[in-house]
Structures are given as structure tokens and as C-alpha cells.
Amino acid sequence: MTEVDHRLESIPRPRWQETCERFLNRHRGWLLHISETPGGEDADLEAGVPSHAQSHVPSKRPQSKPRSRELVSDVALHNLVFTESDGAPELTLVVGDSGGSETSLSVQPQAIMLERQGDADAGIRFEQRDGNQIRALFRVPASPEALDGLAAGER
């Protein structure tokens, strides 16, 4: 098996809103795994990566008990709304399950990074003002151009 390049692309603050809009437009309906890693800890790339993707992520040290906690898993991306009030940015990430229920997650970012795996989109990471990191990773990293059709809820 070949090793797949896993990297982060840091987004400059002036491009946060356009990046969130583009991310939503390209990935609405895609299945996500969302986890949170407490601040102050070394957040390696493998922390919070779904188990099916861990074999593709180079590890700097032996696997240990994950420090991140799963918030939701196998939920579809419904919306990603960027707002700013008094100079403080806030994101609302809205996801839903196949039963029709939705969950909203509020994020106060101080950094936004896109995660890539080879040429494919792997997800998005938000470093919050409190130091915690929220990671929204796709169940299957892929380039939108490589997919055929829309999810049933997006037709």
C-alpha cells in the first residue's frame, strides 16, 4: 500500500468567509466525522481521524489512547454559516443524520485549515479561541470532481 500525503492548508483570515462558502458548496451532503481535541495538547494529524483513515496518516509516535472526543459521526453536512460580530468571527456548522434530525455546532475560530489527503479533500479544521480544535473529516476523502451525482437529500 502506498502512503498518502496528508496535509493542512492554513486559510488567511480575510478568506475565511469565502472558504466556508466554497467548502459548503463543494461538500454539501457529504458524510462527516466531527471530533474535538482539547487545547494545550499536541494535536497530531492522527488524533480524531476515523479509524478507516488512520492507516494513511503517518504517525510520529506509537498509537496511544486518543485524546480527542467524538462529537458526531456519519452525519451529512447541511450548512456552514460564517458571521462576525464586533470583530469576533463565529461559525455555525449544521449537520444531520438520515432520520432528518439536525445538530448545530457553534465554533469561535482563531484559525481555519483545510485538510487534504493526496489530491482529495479530507475535511476542515477549526482552532478555537479557547485552544480546542474541532475537526470535521469526511468519511471518504475525495475530490468533488471524482464523484458522480448528488446525495438523495440534495436533489
Distinctive features:
155 residues; mainly beta; eight-stranded antiparallel beta sheet; globular
Largest sheet: 8 strands, antiparallel
The helix-strand sequence is: EHEEEEEEE
| Helix content range | under 10%
Give unreliable regions as ranges.
41-60
Strand content: over 45%
Distance between the termini: 36 Å
What is the CA-based Rg, rounded?
Answer: 15 Å
The 3D shape can be described as globular
Average pLDDT for all residues:
79
Describe the structure in your own words.
The protein has 155 residues and is mainly β. It is 8% helix and 47% strand. It contains one helix and eight strands, in the order βαβββββββ. The protein has one helix spanning 16-27; strands spanning 6-11, 31-37, 69-85, 88-96, 102-107, 109-117, 120-128, 133-142. Strand 7 and strand 8 form a beta hairpin. It starts with 5 loop residues before the first strand and ends in a 13-residue tail after the last strand.
